[in-house]
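Hi everyone,

Forwarding the result from last night's run.
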Amino acid sequence: GAKVGQGLGELASRIPGMIVSLVMAIVSLYFFLVDGKKLAAFARKNSFLNPTQTGEFMDSLATMARSVVLASVASGLAQSLLMFLGMLIAGAPNLGMVTFLVFLFSFLPLVGAAPVTFGVTLMALISGDTTQALILLVSAVLASLIDNFVRPAVLKGGANIHPMIGFIAAFGGLNLFGISGLFLGPIVAGMFMVVLRMNLKSQ
């Protein structure tokens, strides 16, 4: 009980910082959407690379950004689907609401959808339905693990970076930038690989 209380206290202490990071990410996204074309034109005009390399760099950056967002959405959908199937098999109530919450919470760093999935499992166990609790527990564990496979696989397919690099970059970015680092980390790592490949071609 003391360890659980300590863990919840640490999580609660991180929530304000997570909220601030989320707000900053949303505001930044808004201005990038509004002035994104102007920023891209400025970067192309003042790039230290030649026009061909600049075009390749900008195209790779756009592909990388789309892949990172797609990876997060795909991971959330995979977790939601697993929990949906588990609850459907177990006959658990509030199917739609829990599935939506799993998708929503999947974007949170570190904890992800675990509070929802394991919370539903705990409620089933408290109610005395051990069979339902066991099915939900298996679904919750699978939903927690699948993020480690879906996200790197999507990043590898769309952004052309190794799954291990994408995985490490996401957690490194999270440590440096907060919640926005989940998106910025793989983008920075991917752009480093693009510049490295350009340099190797030019030699």
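The first helix runs from residue 2 to 45.

Cheers,
N.
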